[in-house]
Amino acid sequence: MTPRPSAAELAAIEAARLGVWPALADALLDAVWLVDAALLQVAHANAAAGALLGVPCEALRGRSVEMLAATPEDLAFWHGVRCGDADAALLSDTWVRHADGHLVPVTRRVSRVAGGPGSDFFLVALRDCSAQRDAEREREAVIADLRATLESTADGILVTDLGGAIRAFNERFAILWNMPRELLARRDDAAVRAWMRRSVTNPDAYERRLAAIGEATMLQASEEVALHGGRMLERVTLPQCSGGGPVGRVWSFRDISDRLAARRRIEQLAHTDALTGLPNRSALAERYAAALAAGSPFATLLVDIDRFKHLNDTFGQPFGDRVLVEVAERLARCKREADTLARLAGDQYALLVAGAGRDGAQGAARRLLEAMQRPFALDGVGFTVTCSIGIALHPHDGDDMDALLRGADAAVHAMKDAGGAGWRLHEPRDDVDRLARIRLDHAMRQALARGDFHLHYQPQVGLASGEVVGCEALLRWRDPELGDVPPGDFIPVAEESGFIVALGDWVLGEAVRQAAAWRAEGWVMPVAVNVSALQFQRADFVERVAQVLRAAGLPAALLELELTESILLHDADAALGRLRALDALGVQLAIDDFGTGYSSLGYLKRFPIRRLKIDRSFVRGLPGEEADVGIAQAIVNLGRALKLRVVAEGVETEAQRRFLHDAGCDHYQGWLFAPALDAARFAERVRRR
Fold first, then answer.
1. Per residue in 86-128, pLDDT tens?
2. φ, ψ at 475 (rounded to 5°)
């Protein structure tokens, strides 16, 4: 009986049978195992093979190779070997199963090799492709994300290499360039570039710019590209770098047609009056800058519609807007091509007359006035619109836009003060007068706050009895800097600025309080107060009078309100309503400066007036001036006929007093008896009398 070989002897036999292949396998980094060609069992496996399959390499020895097969391809291969395909070989990507059950991607090669004498083996070499597959999946995910990003952006994207060959693009690129799909599908770079060249409005400039960009591989550029059909693209190009150097270029295209159109619209709106379509103040400023830079003389005409507020209030703003448009069209037809007509604000227009001196400016003003003389007709309503024009000349009246417009505006106001419907050249005095009025208005407002205003009272005397029957409260102002300011200087300014309302309210309250104080002393003295048009027209005027009387505790019969004829004639129906309300309170009403306005006898009959005051201008010439005699006598007779008392103002001589007495006048006031006095001296003077 033959003895069994020892373990050492078996190992030596196995080593002889395998030859050098185990040592070679162990030296390799990839997974390798040797398969006995006759038994189809693993004869040897290196450490990398054990790691790949998740088992110790020793555990692989002796295992059937078919048990290690994880794919049909491997099973078929080993089945072929078992059936006698001795020269079988295999190279492909496949999978092996890890000990935990998951599949591992590998590239596998199976080759037949010769071992020791009479021994053949199959060498199975496997390379783990897990990292490569992961990298590929990650790359595919990145590419998918990039593709999704490219397709989702509003910009067209084109990627080229350094030679200009197209590497990638998105759908938006094709849409922006209106490029046929079949052209892109052919991947014909030359045809794509030719299409783009034909699409731009300036192909030569387009090609030159592309060449310049191509020569500067690291250039970053942004510019606008105009396409046929009016579209505008913004083109931005950046170098594409890899490994620290340029490898290509990325081009992005954005349609900015709407943005440019919006910008042009905004610029147009910023320089155009929305209502009339004329240039506005901003556009006019640019024309002024150009005219001033040219250094040539030119004229500024400021056109202001007369009494436009009345028209607007009567027919409404939409109607007024249509009038403004019609005026703009008429004025525009009068200007030359080199001139600029602009609407500044409201009903005010400015005309810059290029190269015009005094005569040219006056000629332009005449043309504008003639255009406005034609009747207007809107919605079946016929009406007339006049305007006042102020003229300022460059360089005589100013060397910038603001100065010239101020000069023209001052001339407009002077024209309006003179009645309007005409033109006037700027005069330096206009600026001085306006500045003085502004300063006076400011000083008045400060004076009222400081308490610098005070009242004087002028006695009103009965011509028959010689007794003081009342007084007129007259406003006086002594300013710390200006001294005594005559009412004739500050009252017109207060009326123009609207401050007369606050001033008149103070006068009313102060006069009523003084009359109430005299009454509290047992001395009944009626007081007359002048009322301005603005004050009388306020909706709460009657209630204000009642409130002042209640607060002071003065009977209404001791207050007389003096109103001018113009107040009563302006909106006569509304005036009549207020007068009746005041009459119902018991307040006495008088017409001041009678004869200087345009009184209607019909209105005098309707109004609850108690007294007429003969203006001092008709008293001054008495008794020598025949005209004054006739007027004064007529007013007295009118008063008698209407059962009104008559008061004469400005009586300074005894001859004037005697004439008025003989004519039948009721009362007088003036320096003949006493000037206007402060409250204390007034009381002393009257009591002494």
1. 677 889 898 888 889 889 999 999 988 876 666 788 889 999 9
2. -80, 135
Q: Quick check: 160 and 239 in contact, CB under 8 A? A: no
Check: CB of residue 674 under 8 Å from CB of residue 468: no
Between CA 560 and CA 526 the distance in angstroms is 7
Whether the per-residue pLDDT at 503 is higher than 90: the answer is yes
Lookup result for tokens 């836009």 = 401
Is beta strand 221-226 parallel, antiparallel or unpaired with respect to 527-530? unpaired
CB 631 within 8 A of CB 618: yes
Q: How big is the CA angle at 122 (ends 120 and 123), to the nearest 5 degrees?
A: 125
Q: Give residue 391's identity as a one-letter amino acid code.
A: I
Distances from the Cα of 94 to the Cαs of 130, 213, 279, 352, 688, in angstroms?
11, 49, 80, 90, 137
Under 8 Å between Cβ of 273 and 245: no
Residue among 640, 573, 639 nearest 606 (CA): 573
> CA–CA separation, 368 vs 356, rounded Å?
15
Distance between CA 228 and CA 482 in Å, rounded?
Answer: 74
The SS3 call for residue 308 is helix
C-alpha–C-alpha distance, residues 28 and 268, integer Å: 79
pLDDT per position as a tens digit, 266-276: 777 778 888 99
Q: Strand, helix or coil at 590? A: strand
pLDDT at position 299, please? Answer: 93
**pLDDT tens profile 136-167:** 787 776 666 666 666 667 788 888 888 888 88
> For the purposes of burial, counting CB atoms within 10 Å of the CB of 455, is it exposed (0-12), middle (13-18) or buried (19 or more)?
buried
DSSP state, residue 256: -
- Cα 376 to Cα 11, 41, 326, 373: the distances in Å are 128, 116, 9, 9
Whole-number average pLDDT of the chain: 87
- For residue 355, which phi and psi values (nearest 5 degrees)? 65, 20
Give the number of other Cβ atoms within 10 Å of residue 680's Cβ: 8
Calpha distance 422→602 (Å, rounded) = 34
CA distance 560 to 569: 19
pLDDT band at 566 (very low <50, low <70, confident <90, very high): confident
Question: Rounded distance, CA 659 to CA 463, Å?
Answer: 10
Q: Which phi and psi (to 5°) does residue 301 adopt?
A: -110, 120
Tell how strand 120-128 and strand 31-36 pair up: antiparallel
Name the residue among 332, 329, 339, 387 with its Cα closest to residue 360.
339
pLDDT per residue as tens digits for the range 624-662: 999 999 999 999 999 999 899 999 999 999 999 999 999
Q: Which residue bears the tokens 């005070």? A: 454
Share of the chain above pLDDT 70, in %: 92
